[in-house]
Amino acid sequence: MYLKVSPRSVQQFRSLLKPPKNIPFRGIYRNDGEVVRKNDLLVNQFKMNYHPGLNVYFENDRGERLLRAYCDGIVRITREKCDPDLEIEEMKAYEYRKDVELYKMTFNVVPLELSNNHNLVLEI
Asked: Which InterPro entries does its entry note (predicted)?
C-alpha cells in the first residue's frame, strides 16, 4: 500500500519550511576594509556575538540582532578586551570565566570624510 502525494501538496509544505523573504540571512555581511554606506547592514545575528563600536548602531528586528553603519565609511573589525561588572544581573553569566581574559569582537566604521569641527591645540 503506497501513500499518494500530489506534487502540489509537497510544494505547499515546502513553502512552510522556507524562511520569509524579507528577513536577511544570519551572518557577516561586510568584512574588514570594505566601504559601506549609511544604514548598510554589517551583521545579522541571533545572539550578541558581535558588538557595535564606533559609528555602528544596534537594531532589534523580530528577534534578529542587526548591526548597521551609522555613516559612510570603511569597516574595521577589532577584538577588544572587556571587563564585565559581575554585580549586574546579565553579566553573571560570565562569572565562571572570571579568571580568564574576556574579549569581544566589535564592528567599527571609520568615516570617509572627517569633520572639520576640531582645532589644532598642539603641534608636534
From this structure: Ribosomal_bL27
Whether the CB-CB separation of 63 and 25 falls below 8 Å is answered with no
Which string of b and e fits 78-115 if b means at least 16 CB within 10 Å? eeeeeebeeeeeeeeeeeeeeeeeeeeebbbbeeeeee
Q: Count of CB atoms within 10 A of residue 13's CB?
A: 10
**CA 25 – CA 61 distance, rounded (Å):** 13
Domain boundaries, the chain: 21-111
Give the span between the Cα atoms of 66 and 68, in whole angstroms: 6
DSSP 24: P
pLDDT value of position 123: 66
pTM: 0.66
The CATH code of the domain at 21-111 is 2.40.50.100
